[in-house]
Amino acid sequence: MGKLRYTFKTDTLFKMLFVKHRDLLKHLVAALLRIPLESIEQFEVRNPEMPPEIMGDKFCRLDINMIVNGQRIDLEIQVANQGYYTERVMLYWAREFSTALPAGQSYDLLPRTLIISIIDFRLFDCEEYHSFFQPLEVNRRTLLSDKMGFHFFELRKLPEEIGDKDALLLWLSLFKAETEEDLEKIKGMEVPAMEQAINAYYSITASPEFHEIERLREKARHDEAQALRHAEQQGIQQGMQQGMRQGKLETAQNLIKMGIPLHQVAAATGLAQTEIEGLCPAL
């Protein structure tokens, strides 16, 4: 047993597993929202597709967009903090909320819209692993509307010991798991939903479909890294060239001040005669 090559945080695995096993997704959503499973009467995944042609796009976002009892819910995994994460999720919320009302309909028909983020970094300066935000009046703490909400689950803050009775912590511990031992420990608790999720994990990660999608995603990551490296190298080269030219110009100005003939200044610096002459009025 050792370190997992893919974890529940792998975006392709996350999307494929929970789209293919929607009963598990329903269990997960019930745990994240702390609502009884049996209270979920309407459950629909709005973006189940994973077309291969977009898997190679580095900007492809593998979230799961759902309607749960009339609410719009967007669930996303984020491994690295790339900056301005709260602003990013607010933009996601705005897009979801603003497109939810058909033309000509009353504003009161706008659905409650929630963004759920499971994140593998520390985002807030607190010890609680779960944070929930809604718009409040700052003095009276009056709720402006319950149609806006943001859930953040910070995996780095989970307690070390997790029992078999807390469904939320069990699910989050799956996302935190990094080794086969971690998965076996959770499976050993003999919680049916956890056993089903882990079995689904091994089934998905062994499938050719998953490996092809992951290959496309990995290629996109390599292409992005190569593009960044190329841009950095170009920037360094341009900077060096600009620095050398600036040095030549400063040398030429000093030589002109010393009374050196312009043709000799051009020969010494490698600058064109016209460039040397252009420096004279500035002196």
Structural commentary:
48% of the residues lie in helices and 12% in strands. It has 10 helices and 6 strands; from the N terminus they run ααβαββαβββαααααα. It has helices spanning 11-20, 22-33, 52-55, 85-98, 167-176, 180-187, 192-205, 208-257, 262-269, 273-279; strands at 43-45, 64-68, 71-78, 113-119, 130-133, 148-154. The chain has a 6-stranded mixed β-sheet with strand order 1-2-3-4-6-5, sandwiched between helices. Helix 1 (11-20) packs across helix 2 (22-33) and helix 8 packs antiparallel against helix 9. The longest helix is centred in the C-terminal third of the chain and has 50 residues, at 208-257. The N and C termini lie far apart (74 Å).
Question: Which characteristics define this entry?
Answer:
283 residues, alpha/beta, 10 helices, 12% strand
Task: Describe the secondary-structure layout.
Elements lengths: L10 H10 L1 H12 L9 E3 L6 H4 L8 E5 L2 E8 L6 H14 L14 E7 L10 E4 L14 E7 L12 H10 L3 H8 L4 H14 L2 H50 L4 H8 L3 H7 L4
Parallel strand pairs: 3-4, 4-6
Antiparallel strand pairs: 1-2, 2-3, 5-6
